Amino acid sequence: MTSPPDKLDGKYGIDEIKAHVAKKRVLIVAGEASGDQYGAELMREVAALSPDTLFFGVGGSKMRDAGLLALVRSEEITVVGLVEVVKHLKTIKGALDLLKESMRALKPDLIVLIDFPDFNFRVADAAVKLGKDGGKMPIFYYISPQVWAWRRGRVKTIARFADKMVVIFPFEVNIYREAGVDVEFLGHPLMDVVAGVERRLKGGGDAKVGGGKPNVALLPGSRRSEIERHLSHLLGASEIIKRKYPDASFTIPLAPTLEMEDVAPYLEDTSLNVAVVKDSFHRVVRGADIAIVSSGTATIETALMGTPMVVVYRLNYLTYMIARLLVRVDYIAMVNLVAKKRVVPELIQSDVNAENIARHVISILSDDAVMKRMREDLSEVRRRIGKPGASARVAERIMNFL
Description:
Elements: H1 14-18, E1 24-30, H2 33-49, E2 53-59, H3 61-65, E3 69-73, H4 82-87, H5 89-106, E4 110-114, H6 117-134, E5 139-142, H7 154-161, E6 164-167, H8 173-177, E7 183-185, H9 190-201, E8 215-219, H10 224-244, E9 249-254, H11 260-267, E10 274-278, H12 281-287, E11 290-294, H13 297-304, E12 309-313, H14 317-326, H15 334-339, E13 346-348, H16 354-365, H17 368-385, H18 390-399
Keywords: Glycosyltransferase, Lipid A biosynthesis, Lipid biosynthesis, Lipid metabolism, Transferase
InterPro entries: Glyco_trans_19
GO molecular function: lipid-A-disaccharide synthase activity; phospholipid binding
């Protein structure tokens, strides 16, 4: 599989995709930035086993770089929160209609759905209905929605349509197995990413300074809405930390889904000299003494790099109030969920403010014993996540359907 020619909008029409000669066609759908990353890795591994496989569907820049012929760019339909979804319903419906049309016209040999449940469940439902008329399209679901946190009924929904389920956390296996789903844990794809980074940065990269000159990584999130809710608080905390540690340095490794103009207005309101870098997440986090991280995949990635952290998250108020009634977990940080204990501090909603964040960061930086214990706990989280090679193992399972 080779990368498609450049297109200004990054999208292809159904007829354009149909014109591509391919031994097998796979409809693949990923929404979040993390799903885009995992999808790209998976596509490359499948291509190594079956070079004539064509991927089309929904993905971000990384999947498009890996050869995806995108009917829809994931950036168009990825939103967080119940209120935000309502604002984008027309766009989301249009994307679903286009995918349904593509299934009829292109008849994929396999459908690969990566997390993104609110959208992907509708894709699966359409595939099942179309399959009753024109031949079944197998569905391979990769990466579980957070059913252990809320909406446990989704397990039964997945059991109805998934021919194969691959999860990325070991504790998820029994949840699906009890529902009769053909499920496996094959490791976490981030281990492949981190192992590659460690090879590239071996003997190099930014050194952790510690002491009175700490490097602090600021990770406010990968979406504009997260920047709006988090960045001012992270910068306020950084100003307090700077007063305690005058030689501290602060860096924002900008997510690939964001541009400099998304963070620039916030930086204008601070006297701090904050470095903003693109495509340097792992280098920055690996070199940081501590990170302030928006809850999500970045917490696991930071844990795998062995960097202590404070986790924060704020939602739209209405979304948060609804979530309070539905969510049934003790922690929001995936690191703590995997460890089954509070390894890193986590601040939610109104607790996310400059003073609270700074207090936790300073308490960690100023206590060597706390720092040492946190690094040991993060090392145990890494052990539980599994060994590198997850994407290759998932690709092998996909080949069973092609």
